[in-house]
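LAB NOTEBOOK - FOLDING QUEUE
OPERATOR: T.R.
BATCH SIZE: 2
PURPOSE: Compare the predicted structure-token outputs for two unrelated chains run back to back under identical settings.
PRIORITY: normal
REVIEWER: second-year student, initials M.K.

ITEM 1
FIELD SEQUENCE / FIELD STRUCTURE:
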Amino acid sequence: MRDFTDKTIIITGATSGIGRALATNLSEMNARLILISRSEKKLNQLYDQLTSKSAKTVYVYAADLTNSHACKAVFEKIINDHHKIDAVINNAGIGVFEYAHLTQTEDMLHMFQLNLFSIVESIKILLPIFKKQSFGHIINIASIAGKMATPKASIYSASKSALIAYTNALRLESETDRLFITTVNLGPVKTNFFKRADPSGSYQKQVARYMLTPDDVANKIIKVLFKRKREINLPWWMAFGTKIHYLFPTLIERLFRSQFSKK
């Protein structure tokens, strides 16, 4: 087990799924945690859980990152409250599975705000700190859908594809020997994400045997924390599929149309 004593790590979307798994595991590794989530009640419950057995250092900030003003305000408050930030894991994200012409404007705006613009805003605020201290790690959680779009995920895929492109450019601009930038591209994970993305539960049932667990993902992320790693792509076979799709898109889309349409 790695020891992150004296490392201050921000996690967004911290109260459930991957964010909660990251918070729990990193707390056990003595990290100093700054947790952001929309629900103040859930944040306080998580705070109590993490600090109940020992004097862990945990700070919680309730903010709705789908609101651009609230997003900017919470990150500005964090840098005013804490003299050093070592890493940010931009985990918060949402998806709505719907055909392109039926997707509601509000859902489109929320997906782009949370999946892309909130991350861009956080990095605008945090990157000068990382550069000044010549150390840090930015981890942006994107999606395999950002590399290979499928039916009923046009807007979600577009937001994640934009995040991948943004992170790639950011890496070229800013990565140094001690400032690392990593993209995490995921297939389906057993989280509350699907309560909104797939309220009928049909897609979840069809892909249940392929789903990653939050702990699977959290452990992979923690393994590369404060190390140079361009991308994490999970599961491996989906990552391999995106490479084949890149080379032979028409063929793959014809062969796997039924699988792509499971939503």
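ITEM 2
FIELD SEQUENCE / FIELD STRUCTURE:
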Amino acid sequence: MSMKQEIQKLNNCLDKCQHKLNSAKSRGDNELISRFTDEIEKLSKKVSQLKHKQSYDLSKERKTLLDMPFSREITKAEQADMGKLKKSVKGLIVVHPMTKIGKELKLKAMTGYAPKSF
């Protein structure tokens, strides 16, 4: 299961527990209240750990891209024939500005990162 799906699943469980806690509070059932508060704490801790790991992985990927010696914007002609460009440049990584990593890098246009100039 991907990290995104796991976070979504945990958030759904957290939401269910929150609703059950509210109904238990309205009934005054102390045993269920304590059980659901413990469950909510456990789930929210797990969600925060996963979100932290996700941001750590993203910043690690960002750092590896920034450490590459060469980067430049990809022209429209190159974007039209991306397969040819990737075959001609070994180790080319293309980042779109609307992806997570693109937003992290604050890109304005599609950019290519490579170990040597292209």
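REVIEWER COMMENT (ITEM 2): The two ends are 37 Å apart (CA to CA).
FOLLOW-UP: none requested
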